[in-house]
Amino acid sequence: MFIRQSNKFKKALLDRKLTFGSWIQTGPYPAIAEILAEAGFDWLAIDCEHSDINIEGLASLARGMYGRKSVPLVRVRENDVLAIRQALDIGAQGVIVPLVNSAEEALKAVKAAKYPPKGIRGFCFSRMNNYGMDFKSYAETANDDISG
User: Fold this and answer.
1) What are the tens digits of pLDDT across the range 51-86?
2) What CATH number has the domain bearing residue 132?
3) CB neighbours of 62 closer than 8 A, spacing ≥ 6?
4) 33, 71, 128, 130: least CB-packed within 10 angstroms?
5) C-beta of residue 46 within 8 angstroms of C-beta of residue 61
6) pLDDT (tens digit, 9 = 90+) per residue, 86-134?
7) Looking at the domain assignment, is residue 148 inside a domain?
8) 1 occurs within a structural domain
9) Whole-model pTM?
10) If we measure between CA atoms, which residue out of 33, 79, 82 comes closest to residue 59?
11) Catalytic annotation on 141?
């Protein structure tokens, strides 16, 4: 059975508690993600904006973090619906969207991260729902669990 960890990072933010994290800006080496995820950080942000980490590299890093202690976040390259959807489908529990300079741009990013009726994120079988095995439970909780 697929066990998805709760988003303790989002809860800490809402509770205004201090969190500690780190950034991954080096190549797509899963061992880096594994080591950092076990080092005690509350969150790890994979930087796809200021690095050469592409979608395949992001998937490798997410696999390295899967089931470990740190909440995976992704800084996407731009405020793009597909980039946000892919980061979440691969395993991010939150996205950091650069160059958001207006309420309209912020709303665009949030809608990309949320399933209908709150957003426009498309449904699929992915890592986050155990490739369909836990689809219903993930779809029912994702809108409230994602930091975005």
Assistant:
1) 999 999 999 999 898 888 899 999 999 999 999 999
2) 3.20.20.60
3) 33, 46, 72, 90, 91, 92, 127
4) 130
5) yes
6) 999 998 999 999 999 999 999 999 999 998 999 999 888 887 788 889 8
7) no
8) no
9) 0.85
10) 33
11) no
